[in-house]
Amino acid sequence: MELTELKYQTAQLIDDVLQQAAVKKGQIFVLGLSSSEVNGGVIGHKSSAEIGQIIVKVIYDKVSEIGAYLAVQGCEHLNRALLVERELAEARRLEIVSVIPQLHAGGSGQVAAYGLFQDPVEVEHITAQAGLDIGDTAIGMHIKHVQIPFRPKLRELGGAHVTALKSRPKLIGGPRASYQATDVFREEKK
């Protein structure tokens, strides 16, 4: 895939996903990325630092623009730990772990984010509101319950399958419960 086209398609993809997931200021957005899959290979076997840099830069800029935080998931060699800004880790009291991502231990996305972030740290667990999975990297463990998978308009990026997750609060209360505010409730609040 031509790198200029990759940058353009990544921008289209992230704009669509951020809109559909309704990501807001202060929320966490997880990115799972297999540059191997984007590159037409099999996950973990054809990593590309250049592809990782292009994709992560575009997504980082778009997520930062709305005031949200980007968390970049690493590969299974780092137990799918996430690279985040220290500010986020400290504010949310996330346990920081010691590792510096490499191309084949963390992946191209984490290596790219490590160069972009102001003060990057790794954390093992996070609860994000939404995320984007480029190349079937399995980000679901980092999205809060209840997860809602959705399909972006662009379903592939290079050779990689693309899916996204958003979340909503749990529905509780059983058959008597109502899940949408009614006009009566709104009138009572006035």
TrEMBL record:
SUPFAM superfamilies referenced in this protein's UniProt entry, alphabetically: TTHA0583/YokD-like
Highest taxon in the source lineage: Bacteria
Signal peptide limits: none
InterPro entries attached to this UniProt entry: Antibiotic_NAT-like (IPR028345), DUF436 (IPR006340)
Family membership noted in the UniProt record: Belongs to the UPF0340 family.
Name of the protein in its database record: UPF0340 protein BHS01_07630
The species this protein was found in: Pseudolactococcus paracarnosus
